[in-house]
Design brief:
The complex is a heterotrimer of chains A (315), B (249) and C (421). With 315 residues, chain A is mainly α. Chain A contains 14 helices and two strands. Chain A has a domain of 214 residues. In chain A, strands 1-2 form a two-stranded antiparallel ribbon. Chain C has 421 residues and is mostly helical. Chain C has 17 helices and four strands. In chain C, α11 runs parallel beside α14. The chains are: A mainly alpha (315), B alpha/beta (249), C mainly alpha (421).
Chain lengths: 315, 249, 421
Amino acid sequence: MDAILFNIFNGILYGMLLFMLSSGLTLIFGMMGVLNFAHASFFMLGAYFAYQISEFVGFYPALIIAPLLIAVIGAYVEKYGLRRVHKFGHVAELLFTFGLFYIIEEIVQMIWGKVPVGYHIPLSMDFSLFKIMGMSYPAYQMFTLAVSIGIFVGLFFVLAKTRAGLIIKAALTHPEIVSSLGHNVPRVFMVVFGLGCGLAGLAGVLAGNTLGTDPSMALFLGPIVFVVIVVGGLGSLKGALVASLLIGLMQTFAISLDYSLNNILEFLGFSVDLESLWRILIDITISQIAPILPYLLLVVMLIARPRGLFGTRDV
Amino acid sequence: MTNILSLSNVSKSFGPAQIIKNLSIDIIKGERHAIIGPNGAGKSTLFNLISGHYKPTSGTITLNKKEISNLDPHNINRKGLARSFQVTNIFPRMTVAENIRCGMLWSKNYKYSIFKLLDNEKELNTFTNNILSELSLDHCAQIPAGLLSYADQRSLEIGITIASGADTIMLDEPTAGMSNSETARAVELIKNISEKRTLIIVEHDMGVVFDLADRISVLVYGEIIYTDTPTKVRNNKKVQEAYLGTEGN
Amino acid sequence: MLNIIKSFSSWIIIALIAALLPMMFDSYFALTLLSKMGVLVIFTVAYNMLLGQGGMLSFGHAIYFGFAGYVSVHILNGIGGEIIPYFPIVLFPIIGAIVGASIGAIIGYLSTRRAGTAFAMISLGFCEMATAFTLIFVVFFNGEDGIQTDRVVGPEPMGISFGPQVEVYYLILFWTLLTVILMYLITKTPFGRMSNAVRDNPERAAFIGYNVRHVRWIAFTLSAMFAGAAGSLHAINYEHIGFESVSVVQSGQVLFMAFIGGVGHFLGPIIGAIGLTYLDSVLLDITEAWLLYLGVTFAVIVAFAPGGLAGLIVMHGPIARTNKSLLIGLIKPYLAAIGSSLTGIVGVIGIIEMLYFKSLISKGEGEIIIFWTEFNANGIFSWIIFIGLILGGIYLCKITYPKAKEGWDHAISVVKSEISL
């Protein structure tokens, strides 16, 4: 029971991290139709910037400065790079951001090297906040959870209650109308792109010290985020949230389950010959195939419901 | 006189907005039938419903006595209905000749073959050249279609539509944006190609409509308010109020 | 008959030149490079069946390439261990093709349920899944180490064992010519033309009777089939297969090659594959920043010349056909523009190289060799030179680019007026 609770907590934590990443991506996609392949790269930059800044002035300033820096960089990338590509269509935009992903990866390796850097949890939060049934819940994770929930609430509030949010929501489903209503669409794009990247950067700041900060971060997390938004339904924030939590919980539980098909069979009273080929297949534990699970979910979703859980817009 | 295309109590809603309301219409085989009406009446939606781009919210559509209401566009086309588009919808990167040739591939049974080299198919290429002549597009047969003038592109648009040899042709505002001389040429072309076929045409140019049509249906706010021969339509009070105005021209 | 020979004359000439290359370049390095080029030409042209011809962007094409390699390696090892009856090495690409087509048909059936960017993301998902597969199911894939093999197995017809690299080269050359010609011919078939039609205007294609999804699925399967053939040759060439051959990195490489070469023209991927493979092997030793330059080049081409190199060349086709003197008139402004760009680019490269030097190697002690000249990365002088070059380049570009554009606009307007006559 205690393990289950712990897993739920970690699953939600991971899920909220995924949501912070996928929300930015969904906003960008929903508004501009651009699927930002480099989104996880900004996540990575956030972690690296946080590391570098905290080396000088500590974690808390880094928490504020790094995401802002990333947001500004994202805005400039939109203004001087992506903007030129809009006229060539969505596939071209995706290709451009793919090139961007490549470039950021190389620059990161150039500046900080190929080995992980020592970005650690700040000492002020490196303790166990409380224990439930023998499992300790670290303070830093609670802090991360609090921040990500705060972001979610803030995003929800901005979108639902403010005028800017109204414009963004409208543009999420009818971008052409928004522009004909007289809003400076290029400026809005730039701001949203920057905001999305900033969110990714923030996720990087928060997660970099627990997941480890190295150049392969983007390649590791990127595809999962894409699965999240395809499963959730492209352009739907609600879908992104549900899919993030779903995949977060699924992954966390899967990794902790060391059971294989063989265990089930043995439980049922069967046993398979040690030498046979089948044994190899059914000996594989759930924890071993955990990395594939999000993609299996993608395949199932594709077969059953290509639009995703809450998909409204088609590409 | 048989009906080749019938719509029976067809409605189409997009969310809460009902664009087509309980519409019924019968198109007689071999006739030239024009559909006119003010902007926003639902003419494009009607075309999209018949050709399969939209599925009706309720009601049935039959072609040659077979129901096509829920079929996909390619299946409807295979059953003998072809349409053109209001906004020119050609293959800009292919040559004009290839555009036409592609239009007839399925009906000539080439399907998805990877074993026939199209340039060597004599009969196919002869048919293509014939259509090009009909359209007066021979001079630009090898030019990428995207580089053509607007009027030529509209001709090509019609050409692709008839290339499949479908018995029922739907043309969506074929003379939109044309000058007078271009329009006259287009009307000649349309008359020629619809000789042995059924033609349904949406048009705003009343001159074209009264010149071409055997019968006219007037579509207003998603409903057909009147269907009859051109003279009767012109003199009908309801139609005059709703659309034609007092001049009837 | 004469027509066939005429149209194939360029292919025949290329084939002859390629066949004679080993006479001139007979070092092991050269032969390995040429072999690698051949394999990647097949892979990239196959990939372009999907991207350039079919309009579908896939980040997961390496799946078919890699898995075909794995199956080939297992069969080779099986033959070597005399568990499986002999199958001629010459015919191995057929095995690869079958593997590629089978997996491609399945994944393609699922993937083509969506289009555009969703399709691209799905392909990425499948690629990640395949990579994870290869790392998890160690029994079949041997995890991170990959699988070794020996291509010298079985009887040796006419003394050809495929041990020496030159023999492998000719094997690859044969299959490259065969597959590329086949893929070229496919573009001229009903399916090929409809694939283009679906790319350009899927709505219209449906309204002329074609099931758009079917067309895409077939394109996907055929593309995967040829990619599989390439994968077999890849495995034979290196006598090894590993998870990298299935990964997003490999898929990205072929995407770069196809796009930079030019997706709109059949020769584009061939140019891209040969050019980038060459640069990759040569520049990797000269500069640490090669991959960065590649990424920047790719991004620049996406933003400014999405037709790639082939596109840039073909763009001038109508001008050449209309009036050759127009084309010649463009040479001067083009050279001026290129020269200005090069000035700036040299400056940028210099700065990047020095940055790399300072951060990665020995934290910036000593001298670095850029463009075959020595520069002191610590002294301010080197930095000033390169920054000066950048600024000079920008200034020159501001002057020469408008002139080049003027020349182009003029030439194109002449061409357009000729058409409407």
